[in-house]
Write a structure and sequence with these properties.
With 215 residues, this protein is of the alpha+beta class. It is built from 3 helices and 7 strands, in the order E-E-E-E-H-H-E-E-E-H. 18% of the residues lie in helices and 32% in strands.
Protein backbone atom coordinates (compact mmCIF):
# COMPACT_ATOMS: atom_id res chain seq x y z
CA UNK A 1 0.00 0.00 0.00
CA UNK A 2 1.38 3.34 -0.99
CA UNK A 3 0.83 6.60 0.84
CA UNK A 4 1.98 10.16 1.11
CA UNK A 5 5.33 8.95 2.42
CA UNK A 6 6.04 7.54 -1.04
CA UNK A 7 5.57 10.90 -2.78
CA UNK A 8 8.85 12.44 -3.95
CA UNK A 9 10.02 15.37 -1.88
CA UNK A 10 10.15 18.67 -3.76
CA UNK A 11 13.53 20.11 -4.60
CA UNK A 12 14.27 23.24 -2.61
CA UNK A 13 15.60 26.47 -4.02
CA UNK A 14 18.61 27.99 -2.33
CA UNK A 15 21.95 29.75 -2.40
CA UNK A 16 25.42 28.20 -2.40
CA UNK A 17 28.55 30.11 -1.46
CA UNK A 18 31.48 28.66 -3.42
CA UNK A 19 35.22 29.01 -3.25
CA UNK A 20 35.88 30.52 -6.73
CA UNK A 21 39.29 28.84 -6.99
CA UNK A 22 38.54 25.32 -5.77
CA UNK A 23 34.82 25.22 -6.57
CA UNK A 24 34.05 23.71 -3.16
CA UNK A 25 30.88 24.82 -1.34
CA UNK A 26 31.59 26.96 1.71
CA UNK A 27 28.00 27.47 2.79
CA UNK A 28 24.65 26.13 1.60
CA UNK A 29 21.44 28.08 2.28
CA UNK A 30 18.31 26.00 1.65
CA UNK A 31 15.09 28.02 1.55
CA UNK A 32 12.60 26.64 4.07
CA UNK A 33 9.74 27.09 1.58
CA UNK A 34 9.97 27.54 -2.17
CA UNK A 35 8.69 31.03 -3.11
CA UNK A 36 5.22 31.14 -4.62
CA UNK A 37 6.40 33.42 -7.43
CA UNK A 38 9.54 34.70 -9.14
CA UNK A 39 9.94 38.05 -10.87
CA UNK A 40 12.58 37.98 -13.61
CA UNK A 41 13.68 40.89 -15.75
CA UNK A 42 16.04 40.87 -18.76
CA UNK A 43 17.35 44.13 -20.20
CA UNK A 44 19.18 43.67 -23.53
CA UNK A 45 22.64 45.21 -23.86
CA UNK A 46 22.20 46.87 -27.23
CA UNK A 47 24.73 48.87 -29.21
CA UNK A 48 23.81 52.48 -29.87
CA UNK A 49 21.75 52.69 -26.71
CA UNK A 50 23.16 56.16 -26.05
CA UNK A 51 20.81 57.61 -28.64
CA UNK A 52 23.46 58.24 -31.29
CA UNK A 53 21.04 57.00 -33.96
CA UNK A 54 23.57 54.89 -35.87
CA UNK A 55 21.32 52.68 -38.02
CA UNK A 56 24.06 50.09 -38.52
CA UNK A 57 23.93 49.33 -34.77
CA UNK A 58 20.17 48.71 -34.47
CA UNK A 59 20.40 44.91 -34.26
CA UNK A 60 23.77 44.56 -32.55
CA UNK A 61 24.13 43.22 -29.01
CA UNK A 62 27.11 44.28 -26.89
CA UNK A 63 26.87 41.32 -24.58
CA UNK A 64 24.53 39.21 -22.45
CA UNK A 65 21.33 40.79 -21.18
CA UNK A 66 21.28 42.23 -17.67
CA UNK A 67 19.11 39.73 -15.80
CA UNK A 68 17.62 40.31 -12.36
CA UNK A 69 15.53 38.08 -10.12
CA UNK A 70 13.25 39.00 -7.23
CA UNK A 71 11.36 36.76 -4.84
CA UNK A 72 10.23 36.58 -1.24
CA UNK A 73 11.50 33.85 1.05
CA UNK A 74 9.54 32.90 4.15
CA UNK A 75 11.08 31.73 7.40
CA UNK A 76 8.80 30.26 10.05
CA UNK A 77 9.60 28.52 13.32
CA UNK A 78 6.11 28.82 14.85
CA UNK A 79 5.27 25.21 13.97
CA UNK A 80 8.51 23.95 15.50
CA UNK A 81 8.34 25.56 18.94
CA UNK A 82 8.60 22.12 20.56
CA UNK A 83 12.17 21.89 19.21
CA UNK A 84 15.08 23.66 20.93
CA UNK A 85 15.44 27.05 19.24
CA UNK A 86 16.71 29.50 21.86
CA UNK A 87 17.54 32.08 19.16
CA UNK A 88 14.37 31.77 17.07
CA UNK A 89 15.22 32.26 13.41
CA UNK A 90 18.14 34.59 14.18
CA UNK A 91 20.64 32.03 12.79
CA UNK A 92 18.80 31.71 9.45
CA UNK A 93 18.49 35.49 9.11
CA UNK A 94 22.15 35.98 10.02
CA UNK A 95 23.20 33.47 7.36
CA UNK A 96 21.37 35.48 4.69
CA UNK A 97 22.68 38.82 5.97
CA UNK A 98 26.27 37.58 5.91
CA UNK A 99 25.94 37.06 2.14
CA UNK A 100 26.14 40.85 1.72
CA UNK A 101 28.66 41.58 4.48
CA UNK A 102 32.44 41.24 4.69
CA UNK A 103 33.67 39.25 7.65
CA UNK A 104 34.77 41.03 10.79
CA UNK A 105 38.34 39.76 10.19
CA UNK A 106 38.36 41.28 6.70
CA UNK A 107 37.13 44.63 8.04
CA UNK A 108 39.76 44.62 10.78
CA UNK A 109 42.51 43.78 8.27
CA UNK A 110 41.53 46.72 6.05
CA UNK A 111 41.33 49.00 9.08
CA UNK A 112 44.87 47.96 10.02
CA UNK A 113 46.11 48.73 6.50
CA UNK A 114 44.45 52.14 6.60
CA UNK A 115 46.00 52.93 10.00
CA UNK A 116 49.44 52.10 8.58
CA UNK A 117 48.97 54.75 5.93
CA UNK A 118 48.20 52.50 3.00
CA UNK A 119 47.11 54.86 0.23
CA UNK A 120 44.78 52.46 -1.53
CA UNK A 121 43.02 49.65 0.28
CA UNK A 122 41.67 47.02 -2.09
CA UNK A 123 37.90 46.51 -1.75
CA UNK A 124 37.00 43.22 -0.12
CA UNK A 125 36.10 40.48 -2.61
CA UNK A 126 33.03 38.45 -1.69
CA UNK A 127 32.87 34.71 -2.33
CA UNK A 128 31.08 33.47 -5.43
CA UNK A 129 27.37 33.01 -4.74
CA UNK A 130 25.16 30.71 -6.81
CA UNK A 131 21.37 30.75 -6.88
CA UNK A 132 19.79 27.38 -7.61
CA UNK A 133 16.22 26.79 -8.75
CA UNK A 134 16.18 23.15 -9.74
CA UNK A 135 18.76 21.47 -11.92
CA UNK A 136 18.13 23.69 -14.94
CA UNK A 137 18.80 27.01 -13.22
CA UNK A 138 22.15 27.36 -11.48
CA UNK A 139 23.25 30.97 -11.73
CA UNK A 140 26.20 33.03 -10.47
CA UNK A 141 24.63 36.04 -8.77
CA UNK A 142 25.24 39.13 -6.70
CA UNK A 143 22.68 40.01 -4.04
CA UNK A 144 21.31 43.49 -4.72
CA UNK A 145 18.48 43.61 -2.20
CA UNK A 146 17.76 42.02 1.15
CA UNK A 147 14.70 43.43 2.91
CA UNK A 148 13.65 41.61 6.08
CA UNK A 149 10.21 41.95 7.61
CA UNK A 150 10.07 40.24 11.00
CA UNK A 151 6.46 39.32 11.72
CA UNK A 152 6.35 37.37 15.00
CA UNK A 153 8.50 37.01 18.12
CA UNK A 154 8.88 34.72 21.10
CA UNK A 155 8.80 35.87 24.72
CA UNK A 156 12.49 36.89 24.49
CA UNK A 157 11.82 38.94 21.33
CA UNK A 158 13.66 36.50 19.11
CA UNK A 159 12.06 36.57 15.64
CA UNK A 160 10.18 33.37 14.87
CA UNK A 161 8.58 34.35 11.55
CA UNK A 162 9.86 36.63 8.80
CA UNK A 163 9.49 37.45 5.12
CA UNK A 164 12.73 38.21 3.28
CA UNK A 165 12.56 40.04 -0.06
CA UNK A 166 15.65 39.03 -2.06
CA UNK A 167 16.91 40.72 -5.21
CA UNK A 168 19.61 39.12 -7.36
CA UNK A 169 21.56 40.19 -10.40
CA UNK A 170 22.91 37.41 -12.57
CA UNK A 171 26.65 37.77 -13.12
CA UNK A 172 27.67 37.27 -16.75
CA UNK A 173 30.91 37.18 -18.71
CA UNK A 174 30.61 40.97 -18.88
CA UNK A 175 30.93 41.15 -15.07
CA UNK A 176 33.61 38.56 -14.36
CA UNK A 177 37.17 37.99 -15.62
CA UNK A 178 37.71 35.53 -18.45
CA UNK A 179 38.21 32.05 -17.02
CA UNK A 180 36.56 32.89 -13.69
CA UNK A 181 34.51 29.98 -12.36
CA UNK A 182 31.43 32.19 -12.23
CA UNK A 183 31.86 33.16 -15.89
CA UNK A 184 32.05 29.50 -16.88
CA UNK A 185 28.92 28.73 -14.85
CA UNK A 186 27.10 31.56 -16.60
CA UNK A 187 28.09 30.17 -20.01
CA UNK A 188 26.76 26.76 -18.92
CA UNK A 189 23.50 28.44 -17.89
CA UNK A 190 23.29 30.22 -21.25
CA UNK A 191 23.91 26.94 -23.09
CA UNK A 192 21.12 25.36 -21.05
CA UNK A 193 18.75 28.11 -22.22
CA UNK A 194 19.75 27.39 -25.81
CA UNK A 195 18.98 23.69 -25.38
CA UNK A 196 15.59 24.45 -23.84
CA UNK A 197 14.81 26.93 -26.60
CA UNK A 198 15.73 24.33 -29.20
CA UNK A 199 13.22 21.93 -27.67
CA UNK A 200 10.31 24.35 -28.17
CA UNK A 201 7.99 23.63 -31.10
CA UNK A 202 8.24 26.13 -33.95
CA UNK A 203 5.15 28.20 -34.70
CA UNK A 204 3.62 28.48 -38.16
CA UNK A 205 3.39 31.66 -40.18
CA UNK A 206 -0.21 30.82 -41.07
CA UNK A 207 -1.18 31.26 -37.41
CA UNK A 208 -0.04 34.88 -37.73
CA UNK A 209 -1.99 35.43 -40.93
CA UNK A 210 1.20 35.43 -43.01
CA UNK A 211 2.00 33.56 -46.20
CA UNK A 212 4.98 31.44 -47.04
CA UNK A 213 7.52 34.15 -46.26
CA UNK A 214 8.04 37.56 -44.75
CA UNK A 215 8.61 40.18 -47.44
Amino acid sequence: MTGYTDAPKPIRAGLVVVDPLRGTPQRVVVLQFNPDSLERSLAPQVAGADGSGDRTEALRLKGPAVETWKFTAELDATDQLDLPAPNGIHPQLATLELLVQPTSDQVRANQALASLGTLEVTPIEAPLTLFTWGGKRILPVRLTELTITEEAFDIDLNPIRAAVAIGLRVLTVSDLPTGHRGAELYLAHLAQKERLGGAAADGRLGALGLGGGVQ
